[in-house]
Design goal:
Blueprint: H1 4-16, H2 19-26, H3 30-44, E1 49-52, E2 55-58, H4 60-83, E3 91-96, H5 98-115, E4 120-125, E5 139-143, E6 152-164, H6 167-172, E7 185-188, H7 195-201, E8 211-214, H8 218-226, E9 231-235, H9 240-244, E10 259-268, H10 276-291
Parallel strand pairs: 3-4, 3-5, 7-8, 7-9
Antiparallel strand pairs: 1-2, 5-10, 6-9, 6-10
């Protein structure tokens, strides 16, 4: 590992294009910054700056290194903000699963921000409800079963799942009833209902599909279905845009071919303290869910 103080000096000098301005930000002297960067250059065996009359001009090696260091320090900042409440002062931290965050929540956030311009939102993704044990949040939207170990949990919404595919695939393999899925590639994703459970519920029982594809995110599974790779058992909530613009269709349109599950839960942090910003977001969230 290179000396970390030298990395901070290098990053500050890069941003300001000046050793003296970088030194002012760090609260040290310009000679101290120059010494740190010289130490870093000695460690790397490469020249990072060309010194020109008070300006710090990056070399080619310096530009490449600066790009990577900026990214690395950004990761450290994000990790710190994720777990350190004091770094989130004034932020409303919302935690949600990656697919719900990307497909449903993020596209609607501009509406909330327009209605509440003074509230700063940080959207944090969680892979599972178990992640909430180690995550700082003001409000969380957990998927699947009610999260264990969380004292403040309530059902948020019921989702409807059904087989979805591209219109071209539905026509090509002539999908008319769930029994016709034997001619399809079944796309599996991580959701509240498996293909085996679905087939039992709609009375098909065991079915030997033409092929199967497993993906670990609903976003990936929906894109795979749009591309014509197969039929996905997915939420109408997450695939609303693709259904609206015709990239996906429900080949079995009757209500009997859909299943409904309470699979999203609202989680409040321990302590039960609910601030003004949290109340505003929850009210907006429930309204947005009802309208969608």
């Amino acid at each position: 590992m290179p000396p970390l103080k030298a990395l901070l000096a290098f990053e500050a000098a890069c941003r300001h294009g000046s050793f003296s301005q970088g030194a002012t930000e760090l609260g040290v002297t310009p000679s101290a910054v120059s010494h740190q960067i010289q130490q870093l250059e000695d460690f790397l065996g490469a020249t990072l700056f060309q010194r020109r009359a008070g300006r710090a001009v990056l070399t080619d090696a310096g530009r490449r290194y600066a790009h990577e260091i900026e990214h690395a320090l950004g990761v450290i900042r994000q990790a710190t903000e994720l777990v350190a409440p004091q770094s989130q002062s004034g932020h409303l931290v919302i935690a949600a699963g990656p697919s719900f965050a990307a497909k449903w929540l993020q596209p609607r956030l501009p509406d909330f921000l327009r209605a509440h311009p003074s509230i700063r939102v940080r959207l944090s993704t969680i892979s599972s409800a178990a992640d909430l044990e180690d995550t700082r949040f003001d409000l969380a939207i957990a998927y699947g079963a009610p999260p264990a170990g969380q004292p403040h949990v309530e059902p948020l919404l019921v989702e409807r799942l059904r087989p979805l595919c591209s219109p071209e695939l539905a026509a090509r393999i002539d999908l008319r009833t769930p029994h016709d899925l034997a001619r399809a590639t079944l796309i599996h994703s991580v959701n509240a209902f498996t293909w085996a459970e679905y087939l039992r519920q709609v009375g098909v029982g065991q079915l030997h599909a033409g092929n199967e594809l497993w993906l670990d995110r609903s976003t990936m599974a929906i894109e795979a279905a749009v591309s014509g790779l197969g039929v996905v058992l997915e939420s109408e909530l997450l695939a609303a845009q693709e259904l609206s613009d015709g990239r996906l269709v429900a080949p079995f349109g009757d209500q009997a071919s859909a299943v409904e599950r309470t699979s999203y839960f609202l989680v409040r942090p321990r302590g039960g303290r609910v601030g003004r910003q949290t109340v505003a977001f929850e009210k907006w969230l429930r309204t947005a869910i009802a309208s969608s």
